[in-house]
Each structure stands twice: as structure tokens, then as C-alpha cells.
Amino acid sequence: MVRQLQRKVRRKRSPALIIKLAILLIILIAVIVLFMNFRLENVIVEGSTRYTEEEIKNRLITKKTDQITLFYYLRQRFSEPVSIPFVQKVVVSMENRNTIHVTVYEKMVVGCVEMMGSYLYFDMDGIVVESTKDKLEDIPQVTGLKFNKLVLHEKLEVQKEGLFETILNVTKLIKKNELPIDAMRFNSEYELTLTSDGIEVSLGRKEFYDEQLAALKNILEAAGDKKLKSIDMKNYSKNNKNIIGEKKE
């Protein structure tokens, strides 16, 4: 009687075991097929100026399953986006079964201020978009200001009404005229001085600096040849193109 019961139990277990083994075999075959046919071999990165292609890859491809193109594409599509400093978003598309295309959309930053050892970067609307310990070489640092409000993802508020509009106007002109400016400094009288590769350029206190900054690129190139340490452009205008330069000792 006992033996008969044992045989019945074995007969009941056998189909269930076979089904489980069959499922495992199918999954194994599927993984092998995916790995053989959808192996990630190429990652094309475009739109990134602050990170190399390799740095972007290292930040995005972090799991073993990412080596399968389809798995990686699905993970990027449906999971939480990876946070990368100075990057607004990353769009991933599958070019073919072995190639992923990554398009990087960077945050537009025009200037930064320092606070407690960190640099806060703001965009063309004055919104603080990023905070890091690192200073970007191509972004001018603004000094000589007192802030009423300095919060990430909110607009900077300075002590004098209208002053920040002047800062934004100047940073836009710096970008437009492709000027190699390292820093912007305001004194107690709100007079503006720019620094470019060790040369200080005094622009004075004005509502608009369009004429001075439009001419500054050529002036800086000439100043470098003459080894100047400072340039006085306070009285520079369309009708008065005289500047005062001081040579290095």
C-alpha cells in the first residue's frame, strides 16, 4: 500500500518537474539568443561637451544586463533617469540590435557664484541649475555681490534691484562675443571689472555694456601681445575708442 502511494506521488511530481525544467530551459535559450544577437557593441554619444564619450558611457552603463542592447534600452526607457551634473536629460534610442544612440542635452549655464566652498551655476534666466565643488573653466565667476536668496532651482536675488539683469546681460554678451572671461567683479560702487587670463578690464558702471564687450575680443588679443596687466575701458564708446593699458612689471 505504501509503495503504491509513493508511485502515485512520483507520477504527480514528474510532470510538474518536467514543466519547471522546460521553463528554465526556455529562459536559458532566450538569454543565450539575446546575448548572442543583442550584445551591446557600440554606444554612439552626441551633444556632450563637458563629458567625454567614455565618461557618459561609464555613468549610463552600470549593470551586467546592460551588455544586452534590448535590456539596456528598456531599463533606460522605463527606470528613473540617471542624474549627471550639468546634464538636463539623456535620450536613448536603439539604432540596431548591437548599437545604442545616446543624445545628451546639457544645462545652459552662463555664470557661477561661490558659497561655502561650492560653486552655484545659473542659467540665462538667473535660475540656479547646478551646485558642485568644481569650477568650470569656461564659465565666469561673479564676485562682489551680496545675495538675498541663493537656492538651487530658484532665481538668484541680489542686494540691488536691477543689478542681476545687468549680470545676465553681460554674461549673454560674453557668450555671444566668445570672450575668454574668467571672472566678473563688482565693487562697492557697482563698477564692473572683468578678468581674462590675468588681465583686468575695468568697464565702470553702466546700464548696458554692449559697445565695450563687442570690441573687447580684439582688444584682449592686442593686450596679450603687449603683455598688459590691466585695461581701462570705463570711458570707451562708439565715439570715444581710447583705452588706457598698464603693462606688467
Description:
- Helices cover 34% and strands 28% of the residues.
- With 249 residues, it is α+β, with helices and mostly antiparallel strands.
- It folds into two domains: 39-106, Ubiquitin-like (UB roll) (Roll); 111-247, Rossmann fold (3-Layer(aba) Sandwich), CATH 3.40.50.
- The strands form four sheets. It has a six-stranded mixed sheet with strand order 7-10-11-12-13-14, with helices on one face. The protein has a three-stranded mixed sheet with strand order 1-3-2, with helices on one face. Strands 4-5-6 form a three-stranded antiparallel sheet, with no helix packed on it.
- It is elongated, with a radius of gyration of 30 Å.
- The termini are far apart.
- The mean pLDDT is 83.
- The chain crosses the membrane at residues 21-40.
- Residues 118-233 form the Cell division protein FtsQ/DivIB C-terminal domain.
- Keywords: Cell cycle, Cell division, Cell inner membrane, Cell membrane, Membrane, Transmembrane, Transmembrane helix.
Features:
249 residues, alpha+beta, Ubiquitin-like (UB roll), Rossmann fold, 2 domains, six-stranded mixed sheet, three-stranded mixed sheet, 5 helices, cell cycle, membrane, cell division, transmembrane helix
| CATH fold label of the largest domain | Rossmann fold
Point out poorly predicted stretches.
none
Alpha carbon gyration radius: 30 Å
In the CATH scheme, the class of the largest domain would be Alpha Beta
What class would the helix/strand composition place it in? alpha+beta
Percentage of residues in strands:
25-35%
* DSSP helix fraction: 25-40%
Distance between the termini: 111 Å
Instruction: List the total number of helices.
Output: 5
- By DSSP, the count of extended strands is 14
- Order of strands across the biggest sheet? 7-10-11-12-13-14
- Secondary-structure element series: HEHHEEEEEEEEHEEEHEE
- What's the architecture of the largest domain, going by CATH? 3-Layer(aba) Sandwich
The number of domains is: 2
The largest pleated sheet is described as: 6 strands, mixed
Q: So what's the overall shape?
A: elongated
Q: What is the typical, i.e. mean, pLDDT? A: 83
Keywords: Cell cycle, Cell division, Cell inner membrane, Cell membrane, Membrane, Transmembrane, Transmembrane helix
GO biological process, one term: cell septum assembly
Pfam families: FtsQ_DivIB_C (PF03799)
Transmembrane segments: 21-40
